[in-house]
Design a protein that fits this description.
Blueprint lengths: L26 H6 L30 H34 L5 H43 L8 H9 L12 H20 L16 H19 L6 H11 L3 H11 L7 H10 L14 H5 L4 H30 L2 H6 L1 H37 L4 H8 L11 H25 L12 H19 L6 H11 L15
Helix pairs in contact: 2-3, 3-4, 4-16, 5-15, 5-16, 6-14, 6-15, 11-13, 13-14
């Protein structure tokens, strides 16, 4: 039973801190405690009262140092991630350009300046977020009492830190905000599952293949938008789909015309596109299904096989850096001891993820073809239904990666769906919210940081380790804030 509110009560028991014991060997409990797992103190010590912050003993706990450290580490992560992506983008653009043109040289300088600005903005964004959260957390704790404010302090601090997203510039980051909201929803649902009050309501969230269902649901919206309304997709994601979708825009326009009940106006452009690739085809203006538009003279099954091979070649360059770069950075020490094992895992992961992406893209065309031929018609509902089972391809991926991929796609799908609804007039108020992304992000970070402080066991250890490194291991909710010894 937790001690009464107030900061002067006995702290031999920390409430939610599971390592509190009165006697016996508590070594295993110290290792399993979500708050004290970093402690390297002997098992005979009272681990709650000797809690560590980033390997510092509790008597050396310094509030100002925690604020400074969180700000610097947040800036480092933001600048490092954005800077790495910016460097990769600049090198890709430079590689596509020809040599020795003055205009291109100027453009290259502009790209580099833009990349540096973006790196600085994202560094300031995460640095300010981290520093603001820790500052508010410490101020409220000092003014209102650590135990009295434990239940709502982190929620408030997360909400106040959220508007730091404005430091990224005037560009809206709806996709990022929705993705963070999805992560917050997952954490909240995990809290609900273990809650006596909401356990039954949240029981469907424990489905073993719920991640695949979410992927199917997301695919229906994303791939329908890819064919019917690309403007509802984020530009970078639209570019990604156009590359891996493997079809020219004239082909997509032809399918769109047919699905929307219009006569295909660009038959000649589609025929010329195939002729440029050495394929002579004559399209029927009275066609009911777009199979001949999608895969010319090939059968649906034959097209699936040929497209799968091409899609796999396109997917390999996407996943090679995803698996091999961490192998050289994160596992650099292990790479010297067991290089064959680590490289083999990286190559196997690359092959597996590439197969997922290629099957996902090729099956999208196969499922729609099957449905079109089965019902002998092509319309918008058929496109939505045909792209739904495409998400089943996620079963190829590792279980640990499925939820990450499905949540990312769900965020993209929600953004596209809201845009479509706003465009047809169902969400008139959405156009009046200039920075809805900041509001969504603030709500999401409030929930996440509350779970981080109060329900740490709902996090996966790898995420918890990163948060602990940035913000410092939080004190148990009912522990008295220690003071630095003079």
């Amino acid at each position: 039973m937790p001690p009464p509110s107030g900061d002067g009560a006995d702290t031999s028991a920390c409430g939610r801190c599971t390592c509190s014991t009165t006697s016996g060997d508590n070594e295993n409990q110290i290792q399993n405690c979500q708050h004290c797992r970093r402690s390297t103190l002997p098992s005979s010590s009272s681990s709650c009262s000797l809690l560590s912050l980033e390997s510092y003993p509790v008597q050396d706990y310094d509030k100002l140092w925690r604020i400074y450290s969180a700000s610097v580490k947040g800036f480092t992560i933001g600048a490092g991630l954005k800077g790495g992506l910016a460097i990769f983008a600049v090198l890709s653009r430079l590689g596509r350009r020809k040599f020795a043109k003055k205009v291109q040289m100027v453009s290259s300088k502009e790209d580099i300046v833009f990349a540096l600005k973006e790196t600085l903005r994202y560094g300031l964004f995460l640095g300010t977020f981290s520093g603001t959260f820790v500052s508010v957390d410490e101020i409220v704790s000092a003014v209102g009492g650590h135990r009295r404010t434990a239940k709502w302090r982190a929620f408030l601090a997360g909400a106040i830190a959220g508007p730091s997203m404005l430091l990224t510039g005037n560009t809206q980051h709806t996709s990022l905000a929705i993705y963070i909201l999805m992560r917050a929803t997952v954490l909240a649902s995990r809290c609900g599952i273990k809650s006596k009050r909401f356990g039954r309501i949240c029981k469907p969230l424990t489905w073993a293949h719920g991640d695949i269902f979410l992927m199917c649901l997301s695919s229906s919206q994303i791939l329908s938008a890819y064919i019917l309304k690309q403007d509802s997709l984020h530009p970078s994601y639209k570019s990604f789909l156009n590359k891996h979708g493997g079809k020219a825009l004239v082909i997509l326009q032809g399918v769109k015309d047919l699905a929307c009940g219009n006569s295909v106006m660009n038959l000649e452009a589609i025929e010329n596109h195939y002729k440029s690739n050495g394929i002579d085809i004559k399209l029927d203006p009275q066609m009911k299904v777009p199979c001949s538009i999608v895969h010319e003279n090939q059968g649906c099954g034959e097209h699936f096989i040929s497209f799968l091979i091409q899609a796999y070649k396109r997917a390999l360059p996407v996943y090679l850096p995803v698996y091999l770069v961490p192998a050289f950075i994160v596992h650099r020490q292990g790479l010297l001891k067991r290089p064959n094992t680590i490289l083999a895992k990286g190559l196997l992961g690359t092959a597996r993820s590439s197969l997922f992406l290629s099957v996902y893209c090729s099956s999208a065309w196969l499922w729609t073809c099957i449905l079109f031929r089965l019902f002998k018609r092509c319309n918008v509902p058929m496109v939505a239904l045909g792209t739904f089972p495409t998400g089943l391809a996620l079963a190829i991926e590792k279980k640990s990666r499925r939820i990450e991929i499905s949540l990312y796609c769900l965020a993209r799908a929600l953004e596209s769906f809201v845009t479509c609804m706003a465009d047809v007039g169902y969400l008139p108020m959405s156009k009046k919210l200039e920075r809805a992304d900041v509001l969504i992000f603030s709500v999401a970070t409030a929930v996440i940081m509350h779970c981080y402080a109060m329900e740490r066991d709902v996090f996966k250890s790898k995420y918890l380790n990163v948060l602990d490194w940035v913000f410092g291991v939080p004190l148990p909710p009912y522990e008295t804030t220690p003071h630095k010894k003079k």
